[in-house]
Design goal:
There is one protein chain. The protein is of the alpha+beta class and about 200 residues long. The protein contains 3 helices and 14 strands. The chain has a 7-stranded mixed β-sheet with strand order 1-5-6-7-3-4-2. A 4-stranded mixed β-sheet has the order 11-8-10-13, with no helix packed on it. The chain has a 3-stranded antiparallel β-sheet with strand order 9-14-12, with no helix packed on it.
């Protein structure tokens, strides 16, 4: 479901103007798509920041004129130190239209001991209807044994979502626990201790 955002049209440009907007708690943005001229907008900072926490968030932009656009938060730029939102690119979408997005893969459950579940591919690309974009894919590894593998083509998808990533891409596996290699300093200390004991 698209979140409603009441936005303003942006009339001032340049770094100074953008800085003033951010000081006022607002975010400069640009809306693209469907052959339309780019539309320069000003978004409400707090509400937009909450929406931007979700991957592939969908919004309904309402302009002062009453004109509305459904859009996807496509590219979010953040301040390198403060990490607050600095600028957003939005892409206009139509209901029923499919778009390609990257979604994260997470795992739940515990494999059979001593197996360790590993997410081999953090993000996969899918094609989904704009108003039914999945936030991610959760894979249950409960009871899976060492040697278990799940490929992109076998991931569970809903609402007509289709896999775009290579179907043979390894996404999740259950492997033997990896032995921790000693740090260089620890290895040197161990060798020194062995030599010392031999001399004694």
């Amino acid at each position: 479901m698209a979140e409603n955002l009441k936005v303003e049209e942006r009339t001032e440009f340049g770094k100074g103007a953008s800085r003033r907007l951010r000081v006022e708690g607002k975010i400069p943005a640009v809306l693209y798509g469907h052959g339309m001229e780019p539309l320069h907008l000003v978004l409400p900072g707090h509400q937009t920041a909450l929406i931007a926490r979700n991957a592939n968030a969908l919004v309904e932009l309402e302009l002062p004129s009453g004109e509305k656009h459904v859009a996807l938060l496509k590219d979010i730029q953040r301040h390198p130190l403060k990490r607050n939102l600095a600028h957003i690119d939005l892409i206009a979408v139509k209901r029923g239209e499919k778009v390609e997005v990257e979604i994260p893969v997470t795992i739940v459950g515990e494999p059979v001991s001593p197996g360790v579940a590993v997410v081999e591919t953090q993000l996969v690309t899918v094609s989904a209807e704009a108003i039914h974009l999945p936030e991610g894919i959760e894979i249950d590894v409960e009871g899976k044994e060492i040697g278990y593998q799940l490929l992109a083509g076998d991931l569970p998808l809903e609402n007509g979502t289709e896999m775009v990533s290579d179907p043979e891409l390894l996404v999740v596996s259950v492997t033997e626990p990896r032995e921790e290699e000693p740090e260089e300093g620890e290895e040197a200390e161990g060798e020194a201790a062995e030599e010392s004991s031999e001399e004694e």
